[in-house]
Amino acid sequence: MEQGNGTLVTEFVFLGFSSLAGLQRLLFVAFLPLYLFTLGTNAIIVSTIVLDRALHTPMYFFLAVLSCSETCYTFVIVPKMLVDLLAQKKTISFLGCAIQMFTFLFLGCSHSFLLAAMGYDRYVAICNPLRYMELMGHGVCVGLVAAACACGFTIAQIITSVVFHLPFHASNQLHHFFCDIAPVLTVASHHTYLSQIVIVMLCALVLVIPLSLILVSYIHIISAILQFPSTLGRYKAFSTCASHLIVVTIHYGCASFIYLRLKSNYSSSRDALISVSYTILTPLFNPLIYSLRNKEFKSALPAWDSLSLSLSLHLPVSHSPCLRPSQKK
């Protein structure tokens, strides 16, 4: 790519935690267990859903995809961040930065549309319960996930192309711990106001369109729940949506604050702090929010004990490895 006068930037230097030089080893000790716990929790969730036939429903299919997405999402950013906390030279190549941004945006945008698909799933389950399995068949669920990934891929490709076709030959110091949009735009030699508008508009579409679909779904859900005759029925119906609403609030709250702004409103220290929350804490809490609030999932976890015991004793596992103890005669 042809650039103007000056030295072409071939790598970027991360300065995200430079103000906490004396605490970086302590941060490593704090973040590593959280990251490993996130990986372990998501692995348990996905494996439990795969093994337990009682959880082979659309809601848990989307939950398994969400857990896989969270795992990949953290894998793009956190390992590099952990290495940099212990390294003297915290650099990433120009191409590596572009790949990290694209992958991060692809997973993040797909995540937004996946949450919209999960909102639609809750709408069908509550407003059309008799036709739930018909309307949310396996093909429909796979199609919704594929559409979410296609939208995420397209938007990530456009934004990454716009950002990395800008000239970079002034500064290569990113005041962040990964290649996010705002810090990379900040070190570009120059860019037009139009490029900023394009990026902000695409980010807005990723947030506004799925969120609007979720709001429409929940307007119909609340309307249907209010018509339930019993208080217990209304409570049970709403409790199936509570976990999704919590995750939606966290995801769209953080994402809106970070991405619906122009370069002039960028604050490196504040944004880095919020980025820690949605790259480490949010992927940790989301699986816990879904699993710990769900009785079906919690009741499926004891099946792991039976499976582990059978394997350790070299005994044949029962035909349904996730048969609950109460079901065994």
Automatic annotation (TrEMBL):
Pfam families according to UniProt: 7tm_4
Membrane topology summary: Multi-pass membrane protein
UniProt xrefs under InterPro entries: GPCR_Rhodpsn, GPCR_Rhodpsn_7TM, Olfact_rcpt
Glycoprotein listed as a keyword: yes
Regions that span the bilayer: 26-51, 58-78, 98-120, 140-164, 193-226, 238-260, 272-292
Domain of life according to the entry: Eukaryota
Keywords linked to the UniProt accession: Cell membrane, G-protein coupled receptor, Glycoprotein, Membrane, Olfaction, Receptor, Sensory transduction, Transducer, Transmembrane, Transmembrane helix
Entry's Gene Ontology cellular component terms: plasma membrane
Presence of the UniProt keyword Transmembrane helix in the record: yes
G-protein coupled receptors family 1 profile domain residues: 41-290
Descriptive protein name: Olfactory receptor 10k2-like
Its job: Odorant receptor.
Localization per Swiss-Prot or TrEMBL: Cell membrane
GO molecular function, one term: G protein-coupled receptor activity
Species this chain originates from: Lynx pardinus
